[in-house]
Amino acid sequence: MKRAVTFTEGVRTGQARTGLLSTQHGEVQTPAFMPVGTKGTVKALTPVDLREAQVEILLCNAYHLWVRPGHERVGALGGLHKMMAWDGPILTDSGGFQVFSLKEFRKITEEGVRFRSPVDGQYRFMSPETCVEIQETLGVDMAMALDECIEWPASREHVAASTARTTRWLQRCLDARKRPEHTALLGIVQGGFYPDMRIAHAQELVEMDLDAYAVGGLSVGEPTEELLGMVETVVPHLPKDKLHYLMGVGYPSDIVEAVIRGIDLFDCVIPTRSGRFGYAFTSVGRLAIKHARFSDDSEPLDPACTCYTCRSFSRAYLRHLFQSKEILALRLISLHNVVFYQSLMSQIRDAIREGAEALETLRKKAEIWTAPMPE
Question: What is the rounded distance in angstroms from the CA atom of residue 233 to the CA atom of residue 14?
Answer without folding.
Answer: 15
